[in-house]
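Sorry to interrupt, but I need a hand with the structure work. Leave the record below and I will have a look:
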Amino acid sequence: MTQLEEQATQQLFEKNFITEEQHNQIKEYRSLGVFSLHAELKVFLYISVLLFTSGIGILIYKNIDTIGHIAILTLLLIAIGVCFYFCFKNSKGFQKSETSFENPVLEYLVLAANILTCIFIGYLQFQYKPFGTSYGLATLVPTIVSFFCAYYFDNRSVLTIAITGLAAYVGFSVTPQDLLTSDFYSHQGLSYSAIVLGGLLILWTIYSSRIQLKTHFNLIYLTFALHMISIALISNLLDVFDWIWFVFAFVLGASCFYFYKVSHEVKAISLFVFTIIYAYIGINIVLFRFLEHIDFSEIWEIFVLAIPAYFIGSIVLFIKLIKNFNKEIAL
């Protein structure tokens, strides 16, 4: 990465975007080896919030008989009220552009308040069932609260909770392991819901970019959309055995092409890498489906020799694509 930065700086100097004095100052600064602890401190704050909320959950679980339900809910409500009080007091209010608290600790206070709200609503529904047997509504309410907090306080972490809650409301969780463990195989309509929801997230990023509404949230939406659509399409490629698998293969190809282009536009290496991985998986599934109709009795030796070359070539191509992408975003 340092070499790429040096090359980028040299290109800026050669194109007269920076002066020789500025070029020397940049080289001198990099030679000092100075690094920031800002990211590390934010990680520790994030872990602290997770440990705090997890500790509350464990405390409730182990002392539920001695503390009492009303007392637990009251304590949770007080904690939520205190957190939101300081958040609203120090907030700059809703703005369409990117904003932040003057004190970064308050960003994690928003996260804590949101997680505690989800715990409160979930515990309230489990114990007293204010929403009746409609557990989907009990999921939707904290999801709406999360979206409000994400946009009002401009918090990416809360936005991920909101999107996850929305996916749970539809009926599935968004993780790559769901390719093997989810109900996509037994409930094909669920995969269609995932594709539709992923498409809606893409449309929302296009619309929000047009009206300039929190455009820095687009990468989160696109990441969720990529996983939802790709996992659902790949599961259908593995499960469907009639001609319709051609349709899923075409849609997967179009989806990967779109995310490939978008990853260059937003300069997101994570989006690019996962797009390449999903495209590679899809290509191999399609290739395997065609090979099923070929008789290898006479050419099996060539096939065995070609397999290592194929995988080695895939690895080399993958590394080359990553290097080229890093060069492009470094310019």
Remarks:
- Residues 300-330 form the longest helix (31 residues).
- The chain has 14 helices and no strands.
- The radius of gyration is 25 Å.
